[in-house]
Amino acid sequence: MAPKRFAKRARTDDDGENDASGFNNVLEIDLGNKKKLAVREFKGNTLIDIREYYTKSEAPDKLLPGRKGISLTPEVWKEVVKNVGKIDEAIKKLEGRESAELEESDDSDDIEKKEQEEKADKE
Question: pTM score, two decimals?
Answer without folding.
Answer: 0.58
